[in-house]
Write a sequence for this structure.
């Protein structure tokens, strides 16, 4: 049975964020098909998506699909600045904001009706402010739960607003394809399709025992709960992060070990630098992989002590990737790699206990010196020789398990 409450949760999601920032900052790119990236597409404007250009697609294929495609290099500093401006609007809209990534968030506006109006009116004003003050299009979904609000925003894209009224969740959700449910990817979609389950309504009608028998207990119970409208999670503002991670699309096809290692080095440097910037240390190193057949795998191991230093995290990440080599070969090669550090403590990275034996130049001093140079002269001021001439990629959220 559907669980309905007041439709007072907003999911606000910037439209094709990186590409939209590029179009905002360069008038010559407006209304043109734009891709951010180089060898791999990191983001595509909606004009480019109309030709079939998608994130993680190779640049060569993207240009073949869209001969007029304009490819621009990523500018992470510009995207971070735009994100800060947008989140300033979020924070001024509601005191209860849960950031999901650099370009999306949940807002709980349940206590604002008397002061600010109904949730739809609040969503309309939020969209107008982001457009006028930041210059970017944003889509808002409004519903009684986080899951339904996110699905609503996906359905309203691009540059729209969609309300799922309380009590109308079944009419909204059931006609949608099963891919609309969190956790349903290509493999799960194909598995359900084998048994004639292609829509949320068909999944709900199949019953939980059947779905569990097809997908296993964890996935089966999870999807049946979503199909039944059960998502009791609240919007949780100001959560302290339990992990820091980044991932990078490599594109399809075989990749040389040196190229994969260079991508791994770049990711580890980003993750450990973010740990040091936040004054955090972590104990568990995780490497996540996506393969050419679209399957995924995760390998992780805990260190003896928490760290925010680059060297020990890189050493462990390399070991984990090497151990997964047979799996990579069996599944046709890597198309994406991610690195994460979890088990974060609250101690400052600079004050942590250094490990024995002490080197002539402690690793803390080296990492600190590199951080100081990059802080003063920019992140491109110093880089490893192995990364010279390579596409630096972007620090993106890790894939879910």
């Amino acid at each position: 049975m559907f669980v309905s409450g007041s439709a007072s949760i907003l999911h606000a999601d910037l439209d094709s964020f990186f590409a939209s920032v590029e179009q905002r900052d360069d008038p010559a790119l407006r209304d043109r098909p734009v891709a951010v990236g180089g060898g791999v597409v990191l983001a595509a404007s909606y004009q480019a998506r109309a030709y079939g250009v998608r994130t993680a697609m190779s640049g060569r294929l993207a240009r073949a699909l869209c001969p007029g495609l304009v490819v621009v290099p990523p500018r992470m500093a510009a995207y971070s600045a735009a994100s800060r401006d947008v989140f300033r609007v979020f924070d001024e809209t509601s005191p209860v904001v849960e950031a999901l990534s650099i370009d999306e968030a949940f807002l709980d506006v349940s206590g604002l009706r008397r002061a600010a109006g109904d949730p739809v009116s609040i969503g309309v004003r939020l969209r107008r402010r982001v457009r006028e003050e930041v210059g970017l299009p944003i889509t808002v979904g409004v519903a009684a739960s986080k899951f339904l609000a996110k699905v609503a925003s996906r359905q309203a894209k691009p540059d729209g607003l969609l309300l799922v009224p309380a009590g109308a969740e079944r009419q909204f959700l059931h006609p949608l394809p099963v891919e609309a449910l969190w956790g349903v990817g290509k493999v799960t979609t194909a598995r359900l399709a084998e048994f004639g389950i292609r829509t949320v309504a068909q999944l709900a009608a199949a019953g939980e025992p059947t779905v569990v028998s097809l997908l296993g207990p964890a996935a089966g119970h999870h999807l049946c709960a979503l199909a039944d409208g059960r998502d009791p999670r609240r919007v949780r503002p100001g959560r302290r992060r339990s992990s820091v991670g980044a991932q990078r699309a490599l594109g399809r096809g075989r990749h040389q070990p040196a190229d994969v290692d260079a991508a791994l080095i770049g990711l580890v440097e980003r993750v450990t630098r973010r740990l040091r910037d936040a004054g955090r240390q972590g104990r568990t190193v995780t490497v996540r992989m996506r393969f050419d057949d679209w399957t995924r795998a995760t390998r992780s191991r805990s260190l003896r002590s928490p760290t925010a230093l680059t060297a020990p995290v890189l050493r462990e990440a390399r070991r984990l990737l090497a151990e997964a080599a047979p799996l990579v070969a069996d599944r046709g090669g890597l198309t994406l790699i991610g690195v994460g550090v979890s088990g974060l403590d609250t101690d400052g990275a600079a004050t942590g206990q250094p490990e024995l034996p002490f080197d002539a130049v402690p690793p803390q001093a080296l990492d600190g010196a590199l951080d100081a140079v990059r802080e003063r002269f920019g992140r491109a001021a110093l880089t490893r020789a192995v990364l010279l001439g390579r596409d630096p990629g972007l620090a993106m959220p890790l894939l879910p398990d």
User: Anything to note?
Assistant: The chain has three domains: 1-167, 174-227, 243-387. The two ends are 28 Å apart (CA to CA). Residues 1-167 form a domain with the Alpha-Beta Plaits fold (CATH 3.30.70.270). The longest helix spans residues 257-278.
